[in-house]
């Protein structure tokens, strides 16, 4: 998964679709979700269709604030620079795959 910062975030979400995981290292659910997203980023259902990246809310609180991130983990799928859908909280891999797949299908 790519790591975005203040300099790379805007360019990363310019086209899309791109899923951005807003997380913090101290957040237990975020630490559990990280490996799930790493696995899903390699999944055949998403390869070439969805880019995966992440933003640390500790290191870049202004990005979290600009995107109205209230709770973490917060996954936002962007397309053409605009938020298309949001998934908040942890879910097991199978559930998260369904949620992401459904979100991706709704923005085509």
The CATH class name reads Alpha Beta
How many helices in DSSP terms?
A: 4
Q: The CATH topology, please? A: Glutaredoxin
Distance between the termini: 22 Å
The gyration radius over C-alpha positions equals 12 Å
| Number of individual domains | 1
Percentage of helical residues? 25-40%
Backbone shape: globular
Helix and strand content put the structural class at alpha/beta
Please report which band the strand proportion falls in: under 5%, 5-15%, 15-25%, 25-35%, 35-45% or over 45%: 25-35%
* Tally of strands: 5
Strand order of the largest sheet: 1-3-2-4-5
Proper CATH architecture: 3-Layer(aba) Sandwich
CATH superfamily: Glutaredoxin
The helix-strand sequence is EHEHEHEEH
Biggest β-sheet strands, sense, barrel: 5 strands, mixed
Low confidence ranges:
none
Mean pLDDT: 94
Structure in words:
The model has no long low-confidence stretch (mean pLDDT 94). This protein is an alpha/beta fold and 108 residues long. The longest helix is centred in the N-terminal third of the chain and has 14 residues, at 28-41. Helix 2 (28-41) links the parallel strand 2 and strand 3. It has a five-stranded mixed sheet. The chain has one domain: Glutaredoxin (3-Layer(aba) Sandwich). The chain contains four helices and five strands. The radius of gyration is 12 Å and the shape is globular.
């Amino acid at each position: 998964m790519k790591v975005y910062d203040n300099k790379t975030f805007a360019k990363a979400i310019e086209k899309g679709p791109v899923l951005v995981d807003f997380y913090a290292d101290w957040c237990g659910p975020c630490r559990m979700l990280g490996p799930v997203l790493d696995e899903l980023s390699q999944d055949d259902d998403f390869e070439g269709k969805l880019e995966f990246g992440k933003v640390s809310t500790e290191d870049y609180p202004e990005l979290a604030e600009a995107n109205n991130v209230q709770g973490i983990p917060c996954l936002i799928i962007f397309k053409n620079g605009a938020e298309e859908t949001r998934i908040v909280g942890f879910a097991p891999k199978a559930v998260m795959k369904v949620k992401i797949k459904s979100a991706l299908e709704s923005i085509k």
